[in-house]
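anyone seen this seq b4? input:
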Amino acid sequence: MGRKVIQMADNFKDLKWYSQFFRKCSKCGTCKSAYSYGPPPTNASICPQGDYFKLDSYYGSRAKSFLGQAILENRVDLTDPAVQEDMQKAVFSCTVCGGCQTQCQLDYKPWIIDYIEEMRHNLVNRGIGPTKAEKIYQDKVIKDHNPYGETHSSRFNWLKDVRDLKTDGNTVYFAGCTASYRRTEIAKSTASVLTKLGEDWGVMGENEYCCGSPLLRAGLREEPQKLAEHNVDYLNDHGFKTIVTACAGCYKVLAKEYEKWWGLKLKAKVLHTAEYLEEKMKKGELKLSNVPATVTYHDPCHMGRHMNHYEVDMDGKKQWKGSYIQIDKPGLYETPRNVLKAIPGIQFKEMYRNRDNSYCCGAGGGIKASYPDVALETAKTRIKEAEGLDSVQKMVTPCPFCVTNLGDASRALGSKVEVVDLIQLVDQALKK
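predicted toks r here
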């Protein structure tokens, strides 16, 4: 299938461009902690990388501003293998969760996540990245269109237990790699819910490729672009009106990054399952029965902080050139909570760190593959936070990757807290 657009946009900026913002970091260190002025005021740790390594040079966006400046101004010898190893670890062991971005109130704030990923890209171009683990799953994505090395033909094997393969309809379910190959219970619940709600839905079948998120997080550019072109071509050619995904990573890429980075605009509306369910709820179409459980909620970074939209005065017409003004559109914080609280029998308890100040599950930014100990210890911290709430039985999160890592931590701790996806609870409520 050939591209219909001969020339695409390439909106990636280099490290020199980002330097106009990361040089504005005042090195105040507020990015190390999750805080709010309240009332009542709150304060807690927010940086998984810093919390694990206990080094000031690893904590938050403050540390990353030093690293970018060192790379850009050649303040370190990046031809020295020992320096290369240290630099790769400092840059690639960050979960890129955006917790530090929430805390920053300077003009640096809107650019922090993109800047960290561009720093990775800069190191990749120097041969100092991606990590060995990321290189392995990069090759797997290129060969099999998924980072797990599973055969492409088996992507929708899970569907056989639910319904026959259907590749048309008003709505298409973009399942994503993790739900298709590792968390099939999430894919099956999503399919079940769509069917119970009478949706005319299909899947992409053999035409669904990895969304590209794992490669983008690793600082790669060419490979995820090819995936984006393929997915957008197919989705636009087949007349779907709505794209639904239950994966936070896929959601960010489909709803934001395809157009942001390459100018690839999807014709269909992109909805996370949480948004889809809330729409149905508002129309009175979500009829839920009793599910007795005491639960808490974990905010996936790619649905929350990463989807915040920042107003920046690039032309200096309101304040000064490049000034950060405000978050004019927040990420998905209330939507999944609204759906969760609408299930009869659910007793909801909020963790201390939530919404913009939520603590990362630990799996993002390639960390689950490259630094599994960091991922697991970070997730354990989150599980312990849930255990601190009285009588909580389940941690609910609408992200297969969060479910995987937090579930691993719960089992490692021998915790009684069960980690489930929001769509699984909704499916359970619709069964009765």
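Confidence is low (pLDDT under 50) at residues 1-7. Residues 34 and 365 are 20 Å apart (CA to CA). kinda curious what u guys think
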